[in-house]
Amino acid sequence: MLKASGAKLFPWKNWDEWYQVVDHLFQGDLSQVLESLQIVSHWRQKMAIPVAVDSGAQLVELCWKQDSITEPIFSLALACAIVRLVNGMVDNMQESSYAVSVTGLASQLGLPVFVAEMRHDISHNALPSREALLFATKECLQWLKKHYFFAQWEQLVPINHNILSYLQLYEDSSKQVWILMTKIVFLIVFLRMVVPKKGNAH
């Protein structure tokens, strides 16, 4: 979503919130995962969120809840999330007037080829086994972690570093200004003490 000025809008408060949610989804305990899933749910209510975030959260949630969801509902839910993730990732690359295969585009993205092939099987053939879907889910989450979430964070680190550098520079400059103004005040006070006023000179 874009503002009228062209700047992108995001549902998260700031990038620190985004990072914490991602970190807890992939590396947190159950309570942290559930809290992050709740935050993602709030994001969805605000606006459409990036498919990588949406599908990634769905896959993580299904992995944590796999023992409480019966078949075939669980496998169908995994299959839908995998298809949506692959389609969402490759759709952004389909810019040529000549259609490129999903498998070819997925390969360019670094997605495992078998995941793209599984997407085709899910859409047109028999539903893969639960074990195959869970393995594909694990590979999808590893890909998201490396190629989307951590890659995004690496782009933000230099920005955060620059912001901190500017803030430090501002803080240092403010200190220098404060010191200078303090010296000026003391100088004014000193001059008033040593320089006689008009009419007081003898």
UniProtKB/TrEMBL annotation:
Keyword Transport set for record: no
Gene Ontology MF annotations: endonuclease activity
GO biological process, alphabetically ordered: maturation of 5.8S rRNA; maturation of LSU-rRNA
Signal peptide boundaries: none
Annotated keywords: Membrane, Transmembrane, Transmembrane helix
Transmembrane regions: 177-195
GO cellular component terms given for this protein: Las1 complex; preribosome, large subunit precursor
InterPro entries attached to this UniProt entry: Las1 (IPR007174)
Pfam family, one: Las1
Domain of life: Eukaryota
Name of the molecule in the record: Uncharacterized protein
Organism: Galdieria sulphuraria (Red alga)
